[in-house]
Design brief:
There is one protein chain. By secondary structure, the chain is mainly α. The chain folds into 2 domains: 97 residues, no CATH class; 234 residues, Orthogonal Bundle (MetI-like fold). Helices cover 71% and strands 0% of the residues. It has 14 helices and no strands. Helix 13 runs antiparallel to helix 14. The protein is flat, with a radius of gyration of 29 Å. The two termini are 56 Å apart. 31% of the residues are buried.
Length: 367
């Protein structure tokens, strides 16, 4: 006797029908096709205007107009074919994507401009000599690079331990007490102070000790540390709060004291986030110019001593080369762009090192 399976249980193997404009879904090529059409429509009036007036094409205006046309077209097409719900989803997706593209424009523009202008003096002489006795062409920024590294390193040595211990107190010991609330309020206030205020504070402190007109690298480090501490505190505090309480309780159940639990369990668990926060703080201050102008000053000679004499840094070097141009002016501008590119590369290298350190010392979750 032959038993035939019911129709509902049979497996039908058939190729999916192609998606068309009358199937209730837009084909995959439709958004890209609409985008290309919108950009073409957006470029047309600006191109005609540029040809008529003999001026350059307004690329930014063309792209903005094309994006607006695309949002309108994708919403209308999707509303007709896919319905209101899917149309709204496509519209919001387009708006978010456009916002991301707009946010990337200044970043990409700055990077391309700095690289294009900075490569002119990106040579061996720039990294092996200072500006001592140099007028016009030649010279380098070795004294500024060394000064930036020394001042930033000293600022990190001052601010990182203070920031870490403050965050540990707020999370592990303060627990919402009056002292913890006061510290949190002061840290929030410090986060928003202008950099020039930090420079004035450091200058006033050293002027009281050494007299008016004092300029030292360590004074610049103190000014940068004032700016770094609140960033380190807030980032570390958030990372420590993300550590599960179960880990602390398990350590306490084994008889481990609280301080050792913090050192051996809490901090290693959050080391990746803490390292990222520290690097954000360093990146925040390494390009500051105003506080270093007040505290460290500027010089054309090498200075390896943070506690004696003026010390040049890359942000101040960039400012001085561009603001006080000599003859020929192109040489000073080229040095300024090369110093800016060097500063960006230093920040990139520090971030790469921080990611590597976080990856190495982060707790291993696998067996």
């Amino acid at each position: 006797m032959t038993v035939t399976a019911p129709e509902s249980t049979r497996t039908v193997s058939a190729a999916a029908p192609p998606v068309s404009l009358n199937s209730g879904h837009l084909p995959r090529w439709a958004p890209w096709g609409l985008l290309a059409l919108s950009l073409l429509i957006g470029f047309t009036p600006f191109a005609l205007e540029a040809l008529a007036s003999g001026s350059d094409l307004n690329i930014a205006g063309s792209v903005v107009l094309g994006a607006v046309i695309y949002l309108v077209l994708i919403y209308v097409m999707s509303r007709i074919i896919e319905g209101a719900r899917k149309a709204l989803d496509r519209l919001i997706t387009g708006i978010v994507t456009s916002a991301f593209a707009i946010a990337m424009v200044p970043l990409v523009s700055v990077a391309v401009t700095v690289v294009a202008n900075g490569l002119a003096r990106f040579d061996g002489l720039f990294f092996s000599s200072s500006m001592r006795g140099v007028l016009g062409e030649g010279g380098g920024a070795l004294h500024a690079i060394i000064g930036t590294l020394l001042v930033t390193l000293a600022a990190a040595v001052i601010s990182i331990p203070i920031g870490l211990m403050t965050a540990v107190y707020l999370v592990e010991y303060g627990q919402g007490g009056r002292m913890a609330r006061t510290i949190t309020f002061l840290v929030d206030v410090m986060t928003g102070i202008p950099s020039i205020v930090a420079g004035l504070f450091a200058y006033a402190v050293f002027a009281l000790i050494f007299g008016p007109g004092v300029r030292m690298g360590i004074a610049g480090s103190v000014a940068l540390a004032v700016l770094m501490i609140p960033v380190v505190v807030r980032s570390t505090e958030e990372m420590l709060r993300l550590v599960p309480n179960e880990l602390r309780e398990a350590s306490y159940a084994l008889g481990v004291p609280k301080w050792l639990t913090i050192v051996k369990v809490v901090l290693p668990t959050s080391i990746a986030g803490i390292t990222t926060g520290v690097m954000l703080a360093i990146s925040r201050v390494i390009g500051e110019t105003a506080p270093l102008l007040l505290t460290a000053g500027f010089t054309d000679a090498m200075n390896y001593n943070l506690f004696s004499g003026r010390m040049q840094t890359l942000p101040v070097f960039t400012y001085s080369q561009y603001a006080y141009q000599g003859i020929p002016a192109e040489a000073y501008v080229e040095r300024a762009w090369a110093a800016a590119l060097t500063l960006i590369i230093i920040v990139m290298l520090l971030n790469l090192i921080a990611r590597l350190v976080a990856k190495i010392f982060a707790p291993k979750t696998g067996r």
